[in-house]
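Q&A log
Question type: sequence-to-structure
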Amino acid sequence: MSGEKLELDLSRREFLRLSGITAVGVGVAGLNAETPKAESASMIGMPFTPVRDPRIGIIGTGGRGTSLLENLLAADVKVLALCDIVRAKAEHAQGMVVKAGQASPELYTNGDHAFTSLVAREDLDLVIIATPWNWHVEMAVASMTHGKHACTEVPAAQSIEDCWKLVDTSEQTRRHCIMLENCCYGYNETLILRMIHAGMFGDLLYGEGAYIHDLREELFSNQGEGLWRRKFHTLLDGNLYPTHGLGPVANYMGIQRGDRFDYMVSMSTPARGLEAYRKEHVAQGDAKWAEKYINGDMNTSLIKTANGLTITLKHDTSNPHPYDRINAIAGTKGAFADYPPRIYFDGQAGGAAWGSIDAYKEHQHPLWKQEGEIAKKLGGHGGMDYIMLYRLMQCLREGLTPDLDVYDAAAWSAPGPLSRASLAEGSAPAKFPDFTRGRWQERDSSQIATQS
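Response status: OK
Response body:
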């Protein structure tokens, strides 16, 4: 969904609701409290009902939505419906579908809640949600309630309450809610995951993930994400975007597959970068000068797992820095760190120096062996977008259990509100809810690691 009307929705009350903190404040204990919930069958291990020719609807046809659409069309998926509050954007996406040789999809552009008509259609199997963050939960819940599987961009939710809402709705409707965490499908991430699964790193001990991306120009743009994303920096202090760095490390460690996040502590630097950028690039008198930025430029959090492993998680989009997700993992036999990719195993040639991952190409993921060339041609974050969507459609077509489920969507999104809660109480530990309700030990590895 594009941003022309979104300023009306991004009120302070709305952001405080999303963050899980009221105007008078909610402590860590209150944020983490789990209210009794009706017993529902778990979605762990539940396969899709096979759909030979998946029928897709897309909510949000801005930059991200059309990028996903391009990859879906390359994966030979039927797109029947498109929704955006800006009709010109929906029409552009419609043209992409027609150019690919498909029938013209129906458009839904009549206001902020036009998506409710899209999800009510009876001829869709799955809905893709590529909208601003504060719409993800409402749209995913509506999709599942109307019998469609929901696939949402990241993060899936902005509060612990909404994380639970996704879990409860998925369990009650028996429809999957999948977060489109493309970074889990990168070449390096899948290669290292396979090597970990093969035991090459020994017993894992610690990892590190991040989203360090200079977005200042985009944040101050008068179009696209600049219309809404900067607003979060004026109302929340914490990790605004945890999943790109966290998802791959969670897969390495088997989170919710034999281990789980237990608690985290968080701290932030002062907020300086956006104010400095505004001074250099925004004319005096612009409405942006009325904004006060409170989100600390670098947020650093430390997560402890139930099995005792540790994860360092970072976020900074407000300062000059090369793009970096860090993507590090270490165990008793060796270590890997990305950006640039480098690897070290006990006793390897060259002494105490990093080596190249090129020597381990035999461990590349089958998806990259089979689909890597078309993925690279399409682009999309180096090809990971296509690999992610191709695999998702493969699971749907063949009636497989999806690689990522609603419990991953909830747990990987939870560091957003938990980081804010920890900061609000002087970096006090904030406990993770167990979104699986005690079933996190029923699996022992990521399906991405075991796929043949």
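Response note: DSSP finds 17 helices and 14 strands in the chain.
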